Request: fold
Amino acid sequence: MDLRVLRYLVAIVDGGSFGKAADQVHISQPALSKAIQQLEEELSATLLERGKRGTAIRLTPAGKVVYQHAQSLIEGRQKMIQELKALKRLERGHLKIGLSPLGSAELFAPIIAKFRARHPQIEIELLERGGAEQEAALRNGDIELATSLIPDDEDLAWLTIHDDPLRIVLPNGHPLAQQAKVNLRDLAGSALVTFEASFILNKLIHQACLSAGFEPTEVTYVSQPDFGLALVAAGTGVMLLPELIAERHLTPGTIIKPLDNKDLRWQLSVIWRKEAILSFAGQAMLELIKERFPAA
Reply:
């Protein structure tokens, strides 16, 4: 059923005649009459009582039903167009973003604040979780954008925004604290404080240790760097962290040392599904991230 023809019907009823309706919808009267006849044939029902020339057009019982629904459809279409325009102009919308606990405060808090200042009518929902959970949430459609390390899977696109070397954080009295640099192999005998399994960084560190020839001794798992560093200061173990995070959360009783492993890096990225069509709000957020990190 053509919405255009339903609009013709409404114009005929509201205008009271075919002539007035033809002028309003900008088609000839014979073409208008033919369109209504075809609609009646399609519905197998007479919609209009056609009296003598000059008499008012009246709706049949079937015509009243069609007229009421036609009005609703036309109003719904107009409302849909208005809402789409509002979305395009970022006057309304909802954006769900997954943020990693690592680096969000340092790198993304200013971006979120700037986005809200530019687009105050967009509702932003922030979900904090580890990188592995972020990827699953993207695939499930629970979030639109996420922060994580560069993904391995081909179904995800990414934009790297920060590339940091990993540093080793030691308690002050640790034997390795006197060395200028620490090789990853030197950690073979040390207890390791690491992040929960949902953090892709945990997988990255574990694989690097295996490549260095040892199985890491992971004594405890944390979800926040502050607590992990408190454990290091207390002598529980050592911790590998991105340089930005280690320096940001510098804890008394600990010392930060560079690693002699240049390939072990924290490449924080914004990720999204390759096949996804980002919302207008999502596109605006991605553009703002590119603006904030022009070298990305």
Notes: The longest strand covers residues 156-171. Residues 10 and 71 are 7 Å apart (CA to CA). The mean pLDDT is 90. The domain at 162-265 is CATH 3.40.190.290 (D-Maltodextrin-Binding Protein; domain 2).
